[in-house]
Amino acid sequence: MPAPSALRRTFAVIAALPLLTLAACGYGSDAKDDGTAKVAAGAKKIDGLDSVKIGYFGNLTHATALVANQKGFFQKELGATKASYATFNAGPSEIEALNSGSIDIGWIGPSPAINGYTKSKGTNLRIIGGSASGGVKLVVNPKKIKSLKDVKGKKIATPQLGNTQDVAFLNWISEQGWKVDAESGAGDVSVVRTDNKVTPDAYKSGSIDGAWVPEPTASKLVAEGGKVLLDEADLWPDKKFVITNIIVSQKFLKEHPKAVEAVLKASVETNKWINANPDEAKAAANKQLEADSGKALPTDVLDPAWKSIQFTNDPLASTLNTEAEHAVKAGLLEDPLLDGIYDLTLLNKVLKADGESTVDDAGLGVK
Known about the structure:
alpha/beta; 7-stranded mixed beta sheet; globular; disordered N terminus
């Protein structure tokens, strides 16, 4: 592991990036409010709020939020308090929106949550629930790479320096005994930081030999002739690791716990419905993607991408801690103080009321 001074210098460089918080599946940084929420007649407001502002990414790993929006689960639980939505293309913009009060609750990847929390010295957010696991793959050009050992010497894309997949790939490289400079990406493997929205074109042009990326980018590469060489889930105990969390601003959590509980209840309801109705849920998620972005995913991308994602209320806290350790090991992050990043009190209340098993915070909860 690099010396503390080296880590501080590295962190200073990375902190100059926009929070180093590109979410697991980010495609940019724009946000928009779709303004389509409908309030049921005769319903009452929660906590006296006119609205609860919910943020998420237009990606299948955020399908809990996509489906809850599309099927009206959020609005059902919020009553006359309008569920309003903002869609994001990157972690920095969602964290900034949370910090400014432009959103109250958001679906986001582990790296943005870790970095947002540590950058604010533990004052801006809490992780209040889980949403999804999996959905990340190493996809390669089968003509150039036929086995894992063939990755050495090749050009492999990740979404951004220090993002969730970048850290995972750097850690995997290290475990092979290969050397790569984390910041430049140069070494035994060339790590090429490429925005997910252009990764398929980079693959088609031959400028990269593969990519360690989330869904649906991984399945887009497969549709272009790529081959899945490794599913990241195979590297984790029980094949589970956090890809999407639910976060809330600490101020909103303190002032409006009933509203937060309502959103969590909707999330738990939605995950139950998704797991009981996978085909219908997949269609609903894709319909909301089309509503948000103007473009639905084709079947040859949607179907395999959906199969690789597990929807869960468990935030898989121990895996978030491991991901933070991987970032420290790579020299991309000082050893973060994550104590208090979780507050699963309301989620466990909802789960108990629903007759489901409660979840734990791996010792990283509010004391």
